[in-house]
Amino acid sequence: MSKRKSASAFDLGQNVKKFSLAAFVVITFVAYVFQQRFNGSTSTAGSPSNPNSNTGQPLSGTASGSSTGAYKDGTYAGPVTDAYYGNVQVQAVIQNGKITNVQFLDYPHDRRTSQAINAQAMPWLQQEAIQAQSAKVDIISGATLTSEAFAKSLQAALQSAKG
Hints:
Layout: H1 2-38, E1 58-60, E2 74-77, E3 81-82, E4 87-95, E5 98-106, H2 112-132, H3 144-162
Antiparallel strand pairs: 1-2, 2-4, 3-4, 4-5
């Protein structure tokens, strides 16, 4: 009888060791992916503000033809877009005809889960939009609804910046 108990205790100990090793490997991989994704970026998510701005209209700046890029210089707010757990609204800052900044005017932030997800997803979405110079950004896994609403609001803002 005692031989069986020690054998099962040994098996349990081995299983715990295997699980711990597997967890360590997974955590290391996830940390590596985040490091590669951010490339040392330390940007942080913004805070919500009043979404009652004029959507799709220039907020400031000029609409002169002196721009060298695809868009007219200025600040353009996209419409408020439903992301199921809350609204998303972004504004694009255009300088020299290029997207230089994308800011969240509103985003889901009432629930702790939304706060955690968006704290990770928002910097990625902002960075990707600036790099792509468009609203065609990759959907962030785990933040699909926020990503889709971001792209929709940004696309409308950029449409206003075109003409």
